Amino acid sequence: MIRKKIIIMAGGSGGHVFPGLTIARYLIKKGWCVKWIGTKNSIESKIVPKYGIKMHFIKIQGLRNTNLKNLIYSPIYILRSYYNITKIIKDWSPDIVLGMGGYVSGPGGISAWRFNIPLVIHEQNKIAGITNYWLSKISTKNIQAYPGTLKNAVVLGNPVCESIINIPIPIKRFCNRQGLLRILVLGGSQGSSILNHILPKVFFLLKEKCIIWHQTGNNELEKTKKTYKKLGLNEFCITCFIDNIASAYEWADIIICRSGALTVSEISIVGLAAIFIPYPHKDKQQHLNAQDLEKIGAAKIIDQSDLDTVSIVSILNSLNREKLLIMAEKAFSLGIRDATQNIFNVINKMSKKI
Predict the structure, then answer these.
(1) Chain centre distance of CA 75
(2) Do domains 5-160+337-351 and 164-334 have the same CATH topology?
(3) What pTM does this model have?
(4) Its membrane topology, per UniProt (predicted)?
């Protein structure tokens, strides 16, 4: 039997890479050959090879907030990347190409379109990234996590790993749970300076009510630990990264976090009350990602411009496990748990080989 081949293009942030990796691992389990196009010195270069997936690196970066030198050289980087990816596509002849977002997807998407290779685009956020927005106009099939993001796109959700999908439902997790409220803090895959700065002060005021598991990101672990220690908060778990995020979700009563697309999807799938502090993108993508959960009473949103110690303390003081269980069950009602299988079905159907 001839094995089907796919090129996955994703890079720049965990929000693009982790959903792509979930799909890649599922495809490999189904007998597919997978290659990945990304950039060096980015999150994908550190994570993807761990799973035995062959990576090809290109040199490209976004044009937003870049310096003059990179702006001048960007056309050269784009053309060189397009040439390199075209060579990979001609030599390997994939059955399909999947773009998960990030600027790395651009040259590969155009090359796939030029050589009449089926091109599938998956958009994770409520607001499409610039690369996916343009590629969606030439793609064979568009997939989105939320309705209304791209034209002519099917809503299939964000793929997440099985360990998260298999977490017990909220009522089972909360059954006979007693003691201090368990608060999980996530600032995204890179951490969040503002959460690392404000939340130790919040928990100092609430130290008789809660216990904390705080992911700081690599750059601010020691600094945040010192802040907690200075406030006399030595019993909390402070770590740079949580490898087993499923265990953290299962442990928590509530999460305080950014509202990246994948985090919001995972919270909905697990069923977990949340306080979201969206990253202040100009297009408000993170705010919009979290809006549906806030509307049904599963979450609170505090914009970063309004964030202070008092606002979070006030919310947490108003909550108990009974209320948090109700919020968790509302969140659970929005979860899309079969995204990976359904995305695989689309890819399998759109690929060239029958």
Answers:
(1) 29
(2) yes
(3) 0.91
(4) Peripheral membrane protein
In words, the CATH class of domain 5-160+337-351 is alpha beta
Note whether 184 and 213 are within 8 A (CB): yes
Q: Taking residues 252-258, report their average pLDDT.
A: 97
Q: Percent of the chain beyond pLDDT 70?
A: 93
Binding residues: 13-15, 125, 189, 242, 261-266, 286
**pLDDT of 130-179, one tens digit each?**
899 999 999 999 999 999 999 899 999 999 999 999 999 999 999 999 99
What does the DSSP assignment read for 53-115?
A: -EEEE-----STT--HHHHHHHHHHHHHHHHHHHHHHHHH--SEEEE-SSTTHHHHHHHHHHT
Residue 116: CB atoms within 10 A of its CB come to: 9
Dihedral angle sign, alpha carbons of residues 320, 325, 326, 328? positive
- Which residues are known binding-site members for UDP-N-acetyl-alpha-D-glucosamine? 13-15, 125, 189, 242, 261-266, 286
